[in-house]
Amino acid sequence: MAITVVGSVALDSIRTPKGEVEDILGGTALHFSNSASLLSEINLIAVVGEDFPKEGFEFFYNKKVDVEGLQVISDGKTFRWKGYYEKDMARAITIDTQLNVFETFQPKVPDKYCGSDFLFLGNIDPELQYNVLKQVNHKKGAILDTMNFWIDSKKQQLLKVIKDIQVIVLNDQELRDLMEDDNIIRAGKALLHLGPQYAVVKKGEHGATIFGPGDEYFTLPAYPIHELFDPTGAGDSFAGGLVSYLDKKGKLSFENLKKAVCYAIIVSSFNVEQFGVKGLEKVTSKDVKDRYRQYAKYTTLPEI
Q1: Predicted TM-score of the model (pTM)
Q2: 74 occurs within a structural domain
Q3: Residue 196: what are its φ and ψ, rounded to 5°?
Q4: Range of the domain at 107
Q5: Residue 1's pLDDT is what?
Q6: Distance CA 18, CA 173 (A)
Q7: How many folded domains does the chain comprise?
Q8: Which CATH number do you get for residue 253?
Q9: pLDDT tens digits, 241-286
Q10: Rounded distance, CA 84 to CA 139, Å?
Q11: Beta strands in the chain (DSSP E)
């Protein structure tokens, strides 16, 4: 079993109330791989410049991520993002974005990736997502992530991709904007008419919700975090946990997706407890199970 992921690999400079870091490993595909590699084999499609640090390649090696699809552009510079979070850390405020080699990125899919069990289309240009979607003959499901920028600037291209995938992952505001409806329940159900079987809606500190066919609906709260360090990459870590759990179970179904969302919430909760990839650096399956048991106590309904 294997997952192919296409997305960004970046160097981030971040300031939060907990501190400040410069040029740490980041990007959609990297954070996804960081959490997904706990359960699955990962095939990476991305691009970096020749300035990408040695520690980045060591990270992929240690996580056993296949990097045949990682393009290294000589004389090029890696995508960089700089931003900060204010006291409540509810949203990132961008100071500077340098697309560099990512601006002209054209994904190249190695032949051995073409039969992957699951495909994750990270938050990139919908035209690139569609290009990869048509090359990878995923056996069990394609999962898509997106953001407001693409909803606003390339909505028709995005809808073309959405039509051909099985699961879409997006946050509550992105759902409202995409469907032009402020009612999340109504918008979530309407989204399924565009093509996907399921929609997973991330709600940050309020957890996540699944919309499925008919009356299939499921919602969970977030895992309570006592020391929030850095929310950057939390959504990508969530996606990595989600897709890797589906890959582990071997089948996309509503019941498996419910368990996958639960697992994703647990895994992504570790991610935000340190800067960058450090939160998941030493996490073991025992750590995940222990946190799950605590989470189960928090979310069990009492008899009435």
Answers
A1: 0.95
A2: yes
A3: -70, 155
A4: 3-296
A5: 66
A6: 26
A7: 1
A8: 3.40.1190.20
A9: 999 999 999 999 999 999 999 999 999 999 999 999 999 988 998 9
A10: 40
A11: 2-6, 10-16, 19-26, 41-49, 65-73, 79-85, 92-98, 118-121, 141-145, 167-171, 198-202, 208-211, 217-220
